[in-house]
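Page 47, continued from p. 46.
Same chain as before, 333 aa.
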Amino acid sequence: MTIEENRFTSKRHTTSYLSSGPPDGPLLIFVHGWPELSFSWRHQIEFFGAAGWRVIAPDMRGYGRSSVYDSHSAYAQSEIVTDMLELLEHLGGDKAVWVGHDWGAPVVWNMGLHHADKVRAIANLCVPLGFERGVEELIKHVDRNIYPIDKYPKGQWDYQYFYMENFELAQNEMESDPYKVVKALFRKKMGEEADQPVFSATIRERGGWFPPDGTPPDMPIDLDVVSEEEAQEYADALTRTGFFGANSWYMNHERNSTYDAELSLVQRTLHMPVLFVHAENDYICYTIKGGLAEPMREACIQLIEKSIQSGHWMAQEKPEQLNAFLLEWLENL
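Result:
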């Protein structure tokens, strides 16, 4: 089964996407997060294409070969969801199964919330319902036993406020050496242990992602997640686009909250089948314990939960286990 590169241009946006599987197969759309690419789903695209699905993996706006914009507001969830609606129409589908990870998960949740008629089912990895409402929603669920409010007022989500307060600095840090950034980020663990504060909780206090001089450390690559060639593919793409678009997704919490406020009470209940896969070693977006996943459990009528002993990048670290969970779930839709 081959993977094809495609491009679709509407009056407002260009989406580059990878595809695999029979043209008349049921649509299965994979939505990546920060700072990734359609390429992030490489272990899933051919697998599910061979299983008979029409698999689509777009480069989200600001990434890869899709349109890049120079204003923060262009990366609001309302704009990104519209991209996905246009892509679905271009593909000739009435509905799709949508799979999201990281910032892709809020996009998929929003598809289910705002456009349930376009959604056959939802699967999300690592990021439960709530992120799409803005960062203040996440603060409500910070574990104050790990993050005392006097020392860690924003908990593990402190890094998101760093973007808002020091956007240009964060951008410059990452653009100084995208390859080193990729090697530093794409690792099996996000944090040391589940009951210890993670590095993302002190970004503002430290004055940046990579203090003291804003230069990413030259860490050894974690080959359990990406190969050197794969890391270079990410780095090459991020060098072409820069980090303005990718980081601007974090600059729209107020707009995203306003978008969420448009929902009716009826829309807030998700009736379609939902699969959520917890990453046991993702200590930033930690959902194994605590209350972060509770809003999802309350909202989803047909929720199935699985967990994988992986870090945040589970689709790349544990693809066989994830694919098995997804395939079993899809076969029972």
